[in-house]
Write the structure tokens for this entry.
Amino acid sequence: MPGAGRARPRLIYKEALVHLLVQSIGFGVAAGAVLALGAVGFTLQFGISNVLNISYGSLMSVGAFLGLFMLGLGLNIWLVMVIGGLAVGACSVVLNRGLITPLVRKGMAPFGLVIVTVSAGIVLEYVIVAVAGPATQTYGNRSGATLNFLGWTLTTAQVVIFAITVVLMLGLHLLLTRTQLGRAMRATSANRTLARSCGIATSRISDIAWFMSGTFCGMAGIALAITIESFDFTLGSIFLIPMIAAAVLGGVGQPYGAMIGGMVVGIVSSVSSAYWDPAYQSVVAFGIIIVMLLVRPRGLFGSATATRKLLA
Amino acid sequence: MRKALVLPLVGVMAVVAGCGSTASTGKAIKPGPINIGVIAPFSGPAAEFGTLISAPCYAASDLINQAGGILGHKVQCTPVDDTGDPADAVPNVTRAIATISNFDLAVGLETNTAATTVPLVNRAQINMVTTNGLTNYDTTTDKYFWRLTPADDANGAAMVQYAYNRGYKRIAVVFENNSTDTGNTPGIEKAAAKLGVKLVTNTTIPADASSYSSVASTVISLHPQAIIFDADPQSTATFLSNYSQLTGGKLPPMITATDSLTPDWYNAVSAAVGTGFIFNKVDLVGSYFSTSTQAFYTYRNALLANPKTHALADTLATVGPPASIYDGINIMALAMLMAKSADPTVYNAYVNDVVTPKAGAVVVDTFAAGKKALSEGKKIQYVGVLGPVTFNKYHNFAGAFAAARFTGSTTSVNAAIMPGSEISKLLG
Amino acid sequence: MANLAYIVVIAAGAYTYGILTLGPDTGNGGFQQYVLGYRLPFFVAVIAAAVAGAVVGVLIGVTGLKRIRQDYQAMVMLVISIMAATVIGAAPSFLGGEPGLSLIPNPFANLSPATGDWAYVAMVAFACVVGYLVMRRFTSGPMGRALRAMRDDEHAAAAMGFSIVKMRLLTQAVGGAFGGVSGALLVAFIGGWSPGAWAYVETLALLTAVIVGGMGNDFGVSLGTFVIAVLLLQGVQFLPQIRSHTGLTEAIGWMTLGILTIAFLWLRPQGVFRERRPRYGQPAVGNAGGGEVAEGHG
């Protein structure tokens, strides 16, 4: 068995064991909030433009470094999160207009697009290195007071981020279900050609989706940088795998699925690293991606329409 | 199609290597400076280490050049980027061996890459002063290998000895899964068993995870009196901040290795949990040297004098490996003078002579003093920053250990000294 | 479609060669841990590496049998390669964990450095020629025609009576064996192997080589490898010292790599050398070769 050579004495009493479980669920919820924020942005853009954007992780790092720059100017952290989010939203639109859309128009196969977004992600990461250097950066200690409730131990920052995520998710829900724009987005996501023939300006909808996705991405990047305390340019690409796992678990293109997926991945990773060798922490997310894509590619909450889209 | 891909890659690497070794065969000293290759990471996540390990080379070479150089040649430090990855290091070091003229000494060759770079340098018949901590080199027969720092298992044992001296009987061990840290583990386990220190957990964590709360929670539930911990600055900061969130700001005393004694580490950790913790609770265990000798002042002044190393002078004041490179370069340079040759195949035989005590020998603590004494026809014994050095038959020397404490972002003091013999007993 | 988990096959060959030639892990003061630990002769270990590569290739190939979207497939492959590296890195006693294996013996260690390296060049060149000939037989014979048919139109190929599953797995096994051998040759030369050596960015470098050289053209791929591996990744080291800013040289190398990939996919998807289509019977008419990647449906 891998890792068997290492002595790992664990003497935990029964109540401590339960306490550890409850606590690690709490950590999972906190991590899940950031994951959900990122995964929803990822899935939203995928649902509408049908492009798997691997550079999403690097855009998150861009957000975190923009945040660092703005904090240096003395702005309030939560204001930074909003502005940083919007700025990354703009980057995301530029990426779509300048790179993805022209290539899709040329008829590039989905596989080629994956390679393009992987490459774009690497370029973005090393642009950060060229500008800000490869060193470890920090926002400083922004976690605030530690709060204890329900047997959970969370920081004020984690609770605020959780609240922001909930508000954004509610906002997104209202947007998608109650507004003309939301209906147009859902229509485009379900069937782009049909939506266009119904008079929906699908390319404008696509821009809006990339903008919203980028905004979530940037905000998630800054939220992650706040909670992780210390980060470098690989921040987002390390976080991309659990985010994709969350999106895939919920069904790619399904915002609600991604919200739940984010929570599930967060909690499962956290609990598993409490009881299993923490070195395998990320393996849970890997496993979810592979199993879901091979066994049930439409995800837990994917609809039949989505299934049709996903078949080769 | 894709299948024919990697074979040519191997071919290309072999061609590069092939060209390389033919070029390096002529060992007669050529016009131009004698090059000291600093084999260390200058790119990638460990790039800071390259800067730290180059500094003593600049200090030593500045002083050697001020004293008129070696056999009419100036000395110069040439960075060789080993990228910190054992496989990627190979083409870079091979190319350096092939292309650098008068490549007569290599320094650095740290733990992560030593297993691939040391054999290359030894095969090319170039003397090296390495700071790697791999235990297999404790009994190496590599002719050109020289090491003035302890292996990692000894460092692990020293950490436990220090914890024991402080009265801690229940220790949690948390290491990042990398070469240096896993190298400490056998020593920790042996020393803990001998000293009766209980390891309540002995776990490894992945680098740069977004949260270590669950691991921290597990450690807390085991109530350790102190924690032996080593990881990169980013992971350390995240772990400690997660830990203190769970305990309402309380952190246990932490024992770590002197490789954490860097501004990067200090900045990351102080931003996460404050300077109070660093100043009062963190002890960094590593090899010891006195900071009150004349040799040390010379070393420190040379660091201060060069604009490239000025800012690092304080940081390096209590860190063993860079000091061992400074001493190592001086020893090799004096051996070149004694041999009247910069060819490693010739001067290698004189290395032991430079440091062994002998009747009538002048004790010298700088290259300049040594050069002067040799020119007057006297015998010398070099006693430098590390104090008197005696190499065993495997070309290894390990002195005493000490625990250092940060006193500022770049400054530190030694807190407790542990004799080398005490530590080697724990490993026996 | 390129296999983004191909590096895992190379790694499998490298590790196999390592643990079969290093001897028991108690040697060298027991500073590294790994399973098995035999001291087999060079050629036996290389053959074992080929077998290991083939087995891992087929295992990866099985996941490719499930018919999901190309981009999902690509993602599964990327995730498999990252996951394999993570799992092996986290298990110190299996294949050396994150520090990996080192001091792997070189078959020419007894010769002098210069002779040994040239002997290695000769051996690798020989292996390349043999590999090329085997591959040519494989791709230009009836089997090759069947594979091309399968790649260009799977349904049509199936209708002509080819077993798609069998052919795919056979391709994976052959590709895996080649990867295994190349991994063994690589590791016998460099002497060490660790998860850092086969991170997914290495896959990107290889992929850039394929894209620049031209998919489907062996010569192009070889040239691409030379250009990318030698001129770009090694060449940046020769840039004048812009080390005032740590990491800048490295950043320039990677940015060039990424931009080159995108530029080629966009402007010249067939690569520098396009695929030479074998002519069957009558001469091909007009532009038979290029552009199948990007052009076609507008």
